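Q: What would this chain look like folded?
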Amino acid sequence: MKTTIHTHATPTAISHAARAIREGHVAVIPTETVYGMAADATNPMAVASIFRAKGRPSDNPLIVHLADAEDTEKYAYTSPLFWRLAEAFMPGPLTIVLPKRDIIPDIVSGGLSTVAIRVPVHPVAREIIRVAGVPIAAPSANISGRPSSTRPQHIIDDCCGKVSVIVCDGASEIGLESTVVALDGDGIVILRPGEVTLEMLRTVSDDVRFAEHNPDVAPISPGTKYKHYAPRATLILVRGNSDKVATFLQEKSQLDRVGILDSCEADTLFAELRNFDEQSDIHTIYAPYPTEIALENRLLKAAQGNILEI
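A: My prediction, written as structure tokens:
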């Protein structure tokens, strides 16, 4: 497949991406969290193209991106709690799982009766959605299982030849995927942590809690079941006394074919993991166990549970 790459998010680039999406093709677009691989969420064949391009399991639901929260009622059944959350955090890096309307095909929801809804704050993403005139299903623009794409070169490396259009707009501002929540009456259940934290959500509801993981239940949120974010090298998280961890990492840094991820920041995490991938001689990466919950969530998946206690 020939891929047209726009190195800047010009009006022409926006128009081209919107037209491609409207015509049933896949385009990569920037958002404030990570780059997204976008297609018309009401077109099952277009959405199937996302799964093929990513190599993504078909029971892993996709997030539907809208230009405005007010459009949600067209695609899902809302509630007073949804509208309180929308007023507080939309547009922004919050995704809310709701009962879906029939206009959203089952392929988007992984065969479930729910759909995940987000309104990005990124002006280019919102404009592409508006011009396309359709809701956009947009998982992260990377090969499934790999670190998410937060830099233009990442999306070109992963997606060129697999999508119709790529629109570049610099580095992703946040660098981690959105917080995903489900609603339980007047309570909020966090399915995937992110920039919108538990403390922030508690300004809307007193009942906010993290979901209990059940591997036997189909995921209603992306990023909660399968291998995610993993670099090619083995990643090991090192947990223990901070001085001992620092000494351990310093000793390991002197060894050949070993990488040290010593500065875990959300906006650079995936870029740093990909940098290690570019160093073909690196076979093991060590990182201090993160204290921030969204980073912990991503790094535990990237490390596939590899934790060294010292």
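The mean pLDDT is 93.
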